[in-house]
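User: I'm curious whether this sequence folds into something compact or stays loose and floppy. Could you predict its structure so I can see for myself?
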Amino acid sequence: MTSKLEIIYNENCPVCRFEIKHYQEYVSKNKLPISFIDLNTNDLTKWGVTKDQAAKQLIAIKDGKTLQGIDAFGELWKTMPRYKVLAILIKLPILNYFSRHLYNFIAAPIIYKMHKNRELKIGNTNRLS
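Assistant: Here's the prediction. I'll summarize afterward.
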């Protein structure tokens, strides 16, 4: 029996929402044991994760183990037959090194900064109301 994979993501992030929506459709169509948890509408203490941690990187939880960033993507892709090749490729040493650095030092910080800017704009809009 396969245990369920839980993916924590930021629904308010357009980049995250676009990518996760694609995965959700694939998971639904193929009835895979993956659930998607929006950090904005769920209490993340159950998973031992803060909202800010989850906004910084994709998080996956399986069998009580928490994975972040590229490791979370790898677990997600490993669970989806169409993406298993990606999961294998990012385990290769040279690709793992580059994908981890690309995600950790470029993609994730840019997406997180966009998230913080959206929060500031929402906060400023609420104060004006």
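Summary: Residues 2 and 33 are 7 Å apart (CA to CA). The chain has five helices and four strands.
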